[in-house]
Each structure stands twice: as structure tokens, then as C-alpha cells.
Design a protein that fits this description.
Blueprint: H1 26-39, H2 41-67, H3 84-114
């Protein structure tokens, strides 16, 4: 398994990869503003934290496995390229998780206070 310090630039998140450009992260930023306008910024901050955690612990590793044909990434093999469909899937999963988290945050907070 690769450590983050040994990660090649091709495996970096698209907005961090210089060859892909920095504007690929813009849809994530714009999608992050939606729940804040609807549910309030406290719920939005909690939801974005949950969505980001879920993305890096679940969605990105599963996407890497899918792009590599279901096989784990090995040290010497080239990193599979992030396709447009995979990027769109990550954006949809992240946005859905953020909106669901923002919707559920007030209920979770209210139940925590009552308990």
C-alpha cells in the first residue's frame, strides 16, 4: 500500500494535479455552497466534514479499485487515469452526501441534546 508521501502526481486529486488544471475542483466548491444557503452554515459545515471524510475513506479508494479493474494498486504499476465518468461519480456522491448530511444535522443535534 502506498503512503501519502510516496504518492505520484498522477494519483493526486484532479484539482491538485498540475497537468489536469486547478479548475476541476470548482464544481466541488460550488456544490459546497448549496447546503449552506438552504440549511444554514452550521449544518453545512458539519455536512461538508462528513462528506469529505466519506469521500477520502470510501469513495476515492473504491474509485481507484474500479479504475484498476478491481485489483489493488501495486507499487510498480502505473496509476490508472481518472476518467470523466469517475470524476462525475465522485462529484455526485460527494454532493449527495453533503446534502443528506446537512438535512440530517439539525435532527442529530436535537436528538443529542435530548439524550
Amino acid at each position: 500500500m502506498r503512503s501519502l508521501r510516496q504518492t505520484p502526481p498522477a494519483l493526486a486529486w484532479p484539482s491538485l494535479n498540475h497537468s489536469q488544471g486547478r479548475l476541476l475542483g470548482l464544481p466541488f466548491v460550488l456544490a459546497a455552497l448549496g447546503p449552506g444557503l438552504v440549511f444554514g452554515w452550521q449544518a453545512c459545515l458539519a455536512a461538508l466534514t462528513i462528506a469529505t471524510l466519506a469521500t477520502f475513506l470510501v469513495y476515492v479508494p473504491l474509485t481507484a479499485l474500479a479504475l484498476n479493474g478491481g485489483n489493488p494498486l501495486v507499487e510498480d504499476a502505473p496509476v490508472p487515469a481518472l476518467t470523466a465518468r469517475a470524476y462525475a461519480a465522485l462529484l455526485v456522491l460527494w454532493t449527495t452526501t453533503a446534502w443528506l448530511g446537512a438535512y440530517a444535522a439539525p435532527y442529530l443535534h436535537q436528538n443529542a441534546i435530548q439524550a
